[in-house]
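Handoff note, outgoing to incoming analyst
You'll be picking up this chain. Sequence as last confirmed:
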Amino acid sequence: IFSGKPDAGTVENQKTEVKINCLTLNKFIGIGMPHAYKVS
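Most recent structure output, in case you need it:
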C-alpha cells in the first residue's frame, strides 16, 4: 500500500508522513474487522 521509504524530504515531513500512513493503515484494518454483537 505504501512505499518502503518516506517520500518527504525533511525529517519533520517524514515524521508526519509516517504518522499519516499509520493512521490510514489502522483505518483500513478497522474497516476489515467484523462487527460482533451479543445474541441473547
